[in-house]
């Protein structure tokens, strides 16, 4: 029945008909933010109830409207009955506040991140990031938008009346089973929704209207455009404003990516047009194209038949009504200044190879790796010195495109598939961008400033949530190498034995029986973290044994976080 309903809706969309008023999420405009994660139900289809997860409600979460420079105090209470996390996607904050897989919010507990907003005006979002469970929690409804404002953006003549001429769009596709329950880890996502609304319609004034578009889907890429073929203005990417508006007729957004557009509806009162996805224009090798794999014979289980794969379909119908009292009717000619990083000044270059675990024609149905390894919570894959400027080349050796997301920073794109002429829509700040399949590549540059933490890592990963959950993710720490010497005075707070060690196991014992070892890092003579481990809550003790048999001979430091202090000890493997 669900498939029939959707196919009918798809048919209506092609002639410009929609039927459900777009849900506009509530807002929180405060530096003190309280968020409750909860199980609930929601009626997506008439006469049936779907089990969902939401934030302060049944589905999705409130839009957080904050300002650059705000000192935020956030309480996230987990009422789900299972562990989760909340990640502030796109925000430049410390690893302890980032909300990655290591910052677990246990059931019936409250996490209290506190941080200063350092990002420029932009559209961000927040969502769970629990290792292997991200797709389930996001698909069931835990996602919310973040709008950051600053004085530079405020000085521009741009629409910013939330829900009137500044419209949030959390665009997702979902798969429902025969009982209309959400199926996660599915390739059959044939139900399109905006803000949890299927076949949505929204009243917008006959003037310049701003749409903040988030691709919150598990896997699907969208190719946004207008049903009447008109052009529109792309004004912002993941990290905020472009230098000037780009006049476009299409805007491609991959999962996790955001874009802000201005649509000029002046003189169109009484008319209706639609924002659509023109997926028929996609080349092979994109989840959303008619053929998801790039390469002979590559197939994806349950991808077909699906009415929206490789098709043009409606996203949101715009019902154009009278102008507001003070309408914006023009687009600014300039928006901001973006200072480019200089590749020649990079301190480090790295390569990240994306590849399938299963080769051959069935590769799309298996998991994927980065640099030949799958996600391991106890392994730090990359150690980055604080204030490093780095160039990363992301090479896609699989048959499908992967959106590459990096926590902590925004990056600039230097080349795409070897071409240094960057498309206008990718010339701003990004934290997520699609690397095309079949040998595609992307070279990016960024700088790791402000935050160093050798215990809690940041993530880099594919933002196709199926792939992320399947292990297509790595961990990096940003390390201030100057900090270790000053902490050596704490050596007397613990004993470490046997030291030197012949490459077996070592035991760290704190002299205070009330102290508990929470996590530890092992650092080599070059200041690189070669091992990291977070101690399970059931194993917390003042004594912990750890393996060193994989370490090369040499001198090391173990840096242990306890419940109240940081302990460092030197040791030798011989």
Question: What topology does this entry show?
Answer:
Blueprint: H1 2-14, E1 20-21, E2 27-28, E3 32-42, E4 50-55, E5 63-67, E6 71-79, E7 87-89, H2 95-98, E8 110-111, E9 114-116, E10 122-127, H3 134-139, E11 144-149, H4 151-154, E12 166-176, E13 182-183, E14 191-194, E15 197-198, E16 200-205, E17 208-215, E18 222-226, E19 232-237, E20 240-248, E21 251-253, E22 258-264, E23 272-278, E24 312-321, E25 348-356, E26 368-370, E27 382-385, E28 389-396, E29 402-406, E30 412-416, E31 432-435, E32 441-447, E33 453-462, H5 465-469, E34 473-479, E35 494-497, E36 505-510, E37 517-524, E38 529-534, E39 543-547, E40 554-562, E41 566-573
Parallel strand pairs: 1-16, 2-5, 3-6, 5-11, 12-17, 16-24, 25-28, 27-34
Antiparallel strand pairs: 3-4, 6-8, 6-9, 7-10, 10-11, 12-13, 12-14, 14-15, 17-22, 18-21, 18-23, 19-20, 19-22, 23-24, 25-26, 28-32, 29-31, 29-33, 30-32, 33-34, 35-36, 36-39, 37-38, 37-40, 40-41
């Amino acid at each position: 029945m669900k498939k029939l309903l959707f196919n009918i809706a798809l048919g209506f969309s092609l002639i410009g008909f929609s039927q459900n008023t777009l849900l506009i999420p509530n807002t929180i405009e405060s530096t003190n933010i309280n968020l409750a994660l909860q199980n609930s139900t929601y009626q997506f289809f008439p006469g049936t109830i779907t089990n969902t997860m939401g934030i302060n409600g049944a589905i999705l979460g409130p839009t957080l409207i904050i300002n650059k420079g705000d000192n935020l105090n956030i309480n996230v209470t987990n009422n789900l009955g299972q562990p989760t996390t909340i990640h502030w996607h796109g925000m430049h904050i410390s690893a302890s506040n980032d909300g990655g897989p290591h910052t677990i919010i246990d059931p019936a507990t409250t996490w209290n991140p506190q941080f200063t907003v350092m990002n420029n005006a932009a559209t961000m979002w927040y969502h769970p990031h629990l290792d292997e469970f991200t797709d389930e929690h996001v698909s069931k409804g835990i996602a919310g938008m973040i709008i950051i404002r600053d004085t530079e953006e405020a000085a521009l003549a741009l629409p910013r009346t939330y829900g009137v001429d500044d419209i949030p769009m959390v665009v997702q596709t979902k798969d429902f089973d025969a009982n209309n329950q959400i199926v996660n880890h599915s390739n059959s996502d044939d139900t399109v929704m905006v803000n949890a609304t299927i076949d949505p319609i929204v009243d917008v004034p006959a003037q310049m209207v701003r749409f903040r578009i988030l691709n919150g889907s598990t896997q699907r890429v969208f190719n946004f455009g207008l049903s009447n073929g008109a052009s529109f203005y792309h004004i912002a990417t993941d990290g905020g404003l472009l230098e000037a508006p780009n006049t476009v007729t299409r805007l491609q957004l991959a999962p996790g990516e955001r874009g802000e557009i201005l649509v000029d509806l002046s003189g169109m009162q009484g008319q209706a047009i639609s924002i659509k996805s023109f997926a028929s224009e996609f080349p092979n090798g994109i989840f959303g194209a008619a053929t998801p794999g790039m390469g002979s014979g590559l197939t994806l289980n349950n991808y077909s038949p699906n009415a929206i794969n490789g098709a043009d379909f409606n996203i949101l119908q715009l019902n154009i009504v009278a102008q507001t009292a003070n309408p914006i009717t023009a687009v600014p000619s300039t928006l901001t200044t973006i200072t480019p990083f200089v590749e020649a000044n990079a301190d480090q270059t790295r390569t990240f190879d994306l590849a399938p675990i299963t080769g051959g024609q069935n590769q799309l149905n298996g998991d994927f790796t980065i640099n030949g390894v799958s996600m391991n919570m106890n392994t730090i894959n990359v150690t980055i010195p604080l204030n490093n400027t780095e160039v990363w080349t992301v090479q896609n050796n699989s048959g499908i495109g992967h959106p590459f997301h990096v926590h902590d920073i925004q990056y600039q794109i230097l080349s795409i598939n070897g071409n240094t002429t960057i498309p206008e829509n990718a010339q701003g700040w990004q934290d997520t961008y699609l690397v095309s399949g079949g040998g595609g590549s992307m070279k990016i540059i960024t700088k790791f400033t402000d935050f160093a933490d050798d215990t809690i890592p940041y993530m880099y990963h594919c933002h196709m949530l199926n792939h992320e959950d399947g292990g297509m993710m790595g961990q990096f720490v940003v390390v201030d190498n100057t900090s270790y010497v000053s902490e050596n005075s704490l050596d007397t707070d613990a004993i470490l034995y046997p030291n030197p060690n012949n490459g077996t196991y070592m035991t760290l014992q704190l002299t205070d029986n009330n102290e508990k070892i929470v996590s530890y890092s092992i650092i080599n003579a070059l200041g690189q973290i070669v091992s990291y481990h977070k101690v399970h809550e059931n194993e917390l003790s003042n004594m912990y044994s750890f393996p060193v048999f994989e370490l090369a001979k040499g001198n090391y430091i173990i840096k242990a976080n306890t419940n109240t202090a940081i302990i460092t000890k030197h040791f030798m493997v011989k």
